[in-house]
Amino acid sequence: MAISLQVSTTSESRPVGFRVVQLVLSLAVVGFVFLGVLPRIADYSAAWSNIRGVGWLAFMALLAVTVLHVALYWPQMAASLPGLTLGQAAVSNQTSTTVANMVPAGGVVAVGVTYSMYRSWGFSDVEIALSTAVTFIWNLFAKLGLPVIAFIILAVAGRASGGMLVASTVGLSALGAAVGVLALMLWKEEAAKRVSLVLGGVHGAWCALTRKSRSSDWGASCSQFRTHTIRLVLARWRSLTLTTLASHVALYLVLLIALRSVGISGAELTWTEVLGVFAVMRLLSAFPITPGGVGFVELGLIGGLVLAAGHHLQGPAAAFRAQVAAAVLIYRALTYAAPIPVGALTYLVWQRKKSWRASTDRLERKDLEVSDFPIPVPVS
Fold first, then answer.
1. Roughly how many angstroms between the first and final C-alpha of the chain, as a whole number?
2. Measured between alpha carbons, how far is 202 from 63 in angstroms, rounded to an integer?
């Protein structure tokens, strides 16, 4: 049986004025946070002095954990898309991350960039949709589950706060709903059809922005999409879960090491308190207002960590706030800013790596046979 994807052409595009307004609003928010709010919390010159005081050993540790965090996404992507190499996953991930970190509503555009890359390497619309859905769901599960885990750890340590209780309740509720939707999608064909149509809408939005042709009948493929989803989840759930959790843990370690590298001790901010603030901000980052959450993430982390320290402070409050600001700026420089030029380089790799390109016959195929999706089903 084949999955037929009908293709039509559209010339619709989002008005330039709308995109300009998005850009202006994002810049206004970023300017307000960095020029109006953060200077009232911490002195930039003191923060810079703390940054300059970071030793080479600490910097190398930060760099190593950052690279580990990024690299752990690649096997996750390879697990979600059989046939994708780690090199291709790296190129796709870094390029799409750069787009998401620079462009307003960058998440949608990043999905389109990933789609273009995957198509050029010979993957079909259904394979790409399945990979996009599975990686999104697993990353969302991690973001929703982290506040719950952090709250349990803080509760055991006797340091759980009302804010963490609210965040964990929201995370647990949303996590339960997300798991329910996934289970319903795998159980009911109608639910799978709706998910397929949503993904088709994301694809259509990208095509509208770029004036490219788009698949207009994604709903027709829902039955086989559901079948492939079940096969993929059964075969790859362990690797998807391990790589997703490991990547989030590595990201947390970047923040924790940054705090320790500027002189903030465990007596002032415990690793559990840092985990709590980190978990809440990961949950909030699921709804980015600016590209990559820039401005909001920095403000939320600095404010949250300062509040979490509370009465633990062992020195002047102003000096501590400058240390926190320095650590957060280091963390964001490594995890938000540094990937941007790397993504520009990986884009060039995609353009020049002709050996990865699929044959014309493969690119022109409109049907996906079940045999083209070689995911082994475990035998119980």
1. 26
2. 34
Q: How far is residue 352 from each of residues 78, 331, 346, 356, measured CA to CA in Å?
A: 21, 32, 10, 9
Cβ neighbours of residue 339 under 8 Å, at least 6 residues apart?
Answer: 70, 94, 97, 98, 101
Q: 4 — phi, psi (to 5°)?
A: -100, 130
Residues in the chain: 380
Q: What is the DSSP string of 18-73?
A: HHHHHHHHHHHHHHIIIIIIHHHHS-HHHHHHHHHT--HHHHHHHHHHHHHHHHTH
- Residue pLDDT, tens place only, 283-318: 777 666 788 888 889 998 998 898 888 766 666 788
In this prediction the pTM is 0.78
3-state secondary structure (DSSP) of residue 2: strand
Q: Give the DSSP H or E segment for 117.
A: helix 106-120
Dihedral (Cα; 90, 96, 102, 105), 10-degree rounding:
-150
- Identify the residue whose tokens are 């850009």: 23
